[in-house]
Amino acid sequence: MKYRRLGSTDLNVSVIGIGTWQFGGEWGREYTQDEADAILDKGRELGINLIDTAECYGDHLSESLIGSYIGRRNREDWILATKFGHHFHERFSRTDVFDAKGVVAQLDASLKALQTDYIDLYQFHSGPDAAFDNDELWETLNKQVEAGKIRFLGTSIGSNDNLHQTDASTKVNSRAIQVVYNRLDRAPEERVFPSCERQDLGVLARVPLASGYLSGKYKPGAVFGSTDVRHRHDAENTRQKLEEVERIQREEVPQGVDMASWALAWCLKNPVVTAVIPGCKDPAQVEANARAAELV
Predict the structure, then answer these.
(1) Which of these, 22, 189, 190, 239, is most buried using a 10 Å CB contact count?
(2) Of 196, 192, 246, nearest to 218 (Cα)?
């Protein structure tokens, strides 16, 4: 495994992280504690130390699975990143909660679910600019940093070209940007990444496998079940993406190299990117993701 400093923080994160949206049940299956433990154990075995989750991945369900695991392990082995801003109601249904009082309540609920006294990276989660431009929110969050509940603040931008929130990072003491970035979606390279470089912000690339399309497992015409979030994607757009994936696999991926590993390494070869945070359904996928570090 390889490690990089996350922006101007003192966090040295593995270049491959573990994304855990799937633990919330919106990727076509439910997870038991044993299954979550196996995924996280495999990550630790391979040198992964970064876990990314959110309060709205199943109403703190993902956090609770992680917390139960962390509670039986060494907390210091892990860098925990979670997010705030959305209250989960049922699968694919959320409402925004970005007011200062509501966010503190979310923070306390996340700390309880994660069974920890502090969160390493607490991220504003894909909220609108109007919610971001709330001085009271950031003043309250920075007080939580001073109180030791949060080590560092971050911003997970909803639009991968949200320059407004990225440019304001230094002002609000946000040290990292989480953004959609992959071989099919390179928009951050134009404006967001240069701003991150100017401010020495860490960059976490989410959806680095383009919702699994860059795994190379799916062909044009693939159909996803109603419990899988990809069922909600536009069918024609999905078909076009999968046709492009076939072209990339044919023309860009070296012979004998696993496409998913190649796609993750492709993101990491951009020096602005600190780490990728792919999801994984089982320990075998964690192992496949980790192999990407060998290609960087």
Answers:
(1) 22
(2) 246
What backbone torsions phi and psi does residue 147 show, to the nearest 5 degrees? -80, -10
Whether the pLDDT of residue 272 is over 70: the answer is yes
Instruction: Report phi then psi at 181, rounded to 5.
Output: -150, 125
Q: Which amino acid would we find at residue 232?
A: R
Q: Distance (Å, rounded) from C-alpha 154 to C-alpha 127? A: 12
Answer for the pair 193, 262: CB distance below 8 angstroms, yes or no.
no
Contact 159, 190 (CB under 8 A): no
Domains of the chain: 3-295 (3.20.20.100)
Tell whether pTM > 0.85: yes
> Mind listing the pLDDT tens digit for each residue in 70-128?
999 999 999 999 999 988 767 767 788 999 999 999 999 999 999 999 999 999 999 99
- Burial of 32: CB neighbours in 10 Å, binned 0-12, 13-18, 19+: exposed
